[in-house]
Amino acid sequence: MKVLSLKKWLITIVLLTILLIVTIIFCSFQGSADIKLKDLLEIFSNSPSQTWWNTKAIILLKVRLPRILLACMVGGALAVSGVVLQALLRNPLADPYILGVSSGSALGAIIAILLGLNITIGALPLIPLFGFVGGLLTILFVYHISKIHRKISIQTMLLVGVVTGAILAAIIMFITSMAGPHKVQGIIFWLMGSLSSQEYPMVVIVSLYVIVGILILLYYARSLNLLVLGEESATQLGLEVERTKKIAFIGASLITGAAVSVSGLIGFVGILIPHLMRMIIGSDHRLLLPAAGLFGSIYLILADTLARTLMAPTEIPVGVITAICGGPFFIYLLRKKKTIFFH
Predict the structure, then answer these.
(1) Per-residue pLDDT tens over the stretch 196-211
(2) Alpha carbons 234 and 174: distance in angstroms, whole number
(3) What does CATH list as the number for 6-337?
(4) Half-sphere CA count of 214, side-chain side, radius 13 A
(5) Distance in angstroms between the alpha carbons of the first and the last residue of the chain
(6) Exposure letters 110-135 (e unless 16+ CB within 10 A, then b)
(7) Cys bridge to 292: 28, 79, 184, 208, which one at CB 3.0-4.6 A?
(8) Residue 184: other Cβ atoms inside 10 A
């Protein structure tokens, strides 16, 4: 692993941050309603009382912007979670959904949909809340089953996560087959991934979970570098392996649960972005984690913009876009690189 210089870290993060800001501004103008830069300047130059009654201001500030910000949080969370789980499991095919957290969140959200709980308590919608609780219960189950003599077995965790996810997926299919026609469409659309119909209170709540989780994982970036070398080598280098695995697992799972609870299942972000960034900037997690988070945000914002504009006014589930774009590109990377991880 090459030595990471402060100059390289700063240049990479600053460039990606600028690219993220440009992406947010660019995607804010894209949609069926024609909004240009001069409209944006006019909106923010008016007083608040005038702005909110302006049609373009409502579209931009109450429809597009919260959706773009949510895509930013979800994309960053999935990408960072993918990096952490690939290091934790030492498996290049690991992604945020491999441990069953996504299936748990999906099941929780689907139960809320079937119960007709498309309501809010205060500013908190119940469907994402049920989704987060479902993901949290799955985390606790996989974690406790994976403990052997008070230690987390990586192999056991992987197997338990895959089996748990398969069982929950079967339950989801059963529930979907028994649901009424008017609810099946909503369930399927949610399962394919969607960032529509989200408002600022939900964006703020998800942002708190995701930002705090990512900051904690960033603090353990150096520990992840050691963990990739193997548990025995990491222990010899002074790392508290079990504590690191526990925090990494819970942190990655929680930000995944928070993301999935509001977006549904959005594939390939958590597996494609870590690989791509690792090939470009290397495998030092001190840089890889923030870089993957920023680029994951950029990728999902662009994918969601394409999903809502490609066949406007009809909306394509963003999970379909990420799979169609991400799948072939990931295969191309594999063919070009021949071998991946962990250099």
Answers:
(1) 767 788 888 888 889 9
(2) 44
(3) 1.10.3470.10
(4) 29
(5) 7
(6) bbbbbeebeeeeeeebbbbbbbbbbb
(7) 79
(8) 15
Contact 110, 186 (CB under 8 A): no
Look at the chain and count its residues.
343
- The answer to whether the predicted template modeling score (pTM) of the entire model surpasses 0.85 is yes
Element (H, E) at 152: strand 151-152
**pLDDT tens digit sequence for 39-81:** 667 766 665 555 555 777 777 878 888 999 999 999 999 999 9
Angle at 36 between CA 35 and CA 39, to 5 degrees: 85
- Give per-residue pLDDT as tens, 114-145: 877 665 555 556 777 788 888 888 888 888 88
Residue with tokens 């030492």: 90
H-assigned helices in 92-240: 101-114, 126-146, 154-178, 181-191, 200-219, 221-228, 231-236
Containing 61, the helix (H) or strand (E) segment is none
Helix (H) or strand (E) holding 196: none
* Cα separation, 177 vs 277, whole angstroms: 40
**Which are the contacts of 178, defined by CB distance < 8 A and separation ≥ 6?**
none
**What number of other Cβ atoms are within 10 A of residue 333's Cβ?**
14
- In sequence order, what DSSP letters do the residues of 224-290 get, joined into one string? HHHHHT-HHHHHHTT--HHHHHHHHHHHHHHHHHHHHHHH----SHHHHHHHHHHHHH-S-HHHHHH
DSSP H/E element including 23? helix 6-28
